[in-house]
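User: I'll paste a sequence; please echo it back and then give the predicted structure.

Assistant: Echoing your sequence first, then the prediction.
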Amino acid sequence: MATVKAMLRGAADSLLDLTIAPGFSRIGWGARKALGLLGPINVDLGGRTCVVTGANSGLGLEASRQLAALGADVVMVGRNPERLEQARASVEGSARSGASITTEVIDLSSLESVRAGAARLLASKPQIDVLVNNAGVLLDSRQASVDGIELTLATNVLGPFLLTELLIPALAAAALERRPARIINVSSGGMYSEAVKLDELQSERSKWSGSAVYARTKRMQVMLTEYWAGQLADQGIVVHAMHPGWADTPGVESSLPTFHKIVGKALRTPAEGADTITWLAAAEAPNRSSGGFWQDRAERPLNRRPGTASKAGDDRLLADDLRDLAASA
């Protein structure tokens, strides 16, 4: 009987995922919770260090809050010191006794800031158990970073790529003691709509569409997840990507005001959107695989639309291109 119930729950979950709008909205969250698929995360993260980027609002703030409530030592990363300190204070109020909440100011769109911030993190946190790459932007016009790189790519992909590569020694050190360490890349369901063109990473030749450029960077994050999963397996580091569904965050409200207005109350809360980040960071089940794309604690398909899938080896080519771009900027 238990097996039959599990199969029925799985079938209902898959059906929700196929419907897109209900599955990505608060309807899907509520249905999966009613099915018993989203129960409490009862894990002790005491003594574990979790680094969360984009932590001053939205999903990053809520993930920091949830991880701290499980006892983790959380390093909240953001580019605005004042807002970051306000966020830290709000998380500290709900943290479990013994958990430490600290901040690190890093502008992920600036390679100099990333390198300096990574050096400080390696000095202060020689072991990092979880890295959550959450920071991101969606822009309504083409802009350049301080390094002359298209700003969406710089913030959503190149900066997190460089930060992750620089922090691998600390992740590997944690894995030696408490195998495995984990990297979690916060992507978006929007990535299903776009393909990545390796010769057009900076969107220089096509007409600007902020949502399309954003979606392509989110697919790049999934490609990097696959790349790192292969590269880091022998170091005891598990890598997963996830998407939060449609969550009511400040970023969505400011970048997609029409979408935010139309969907309205059907949007998930930031806490609901961040749940799978916390689950991937804390639960045992994600340790059994690497390179997956998750939503609501279940692995989801990488492709839904014809012509958007990457080819074999593209993940490595993307990593090589980003490495070259970081070195030359």
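The chain is about 50% helix and 10% strand. The chain has a mean pLDDT of 94.
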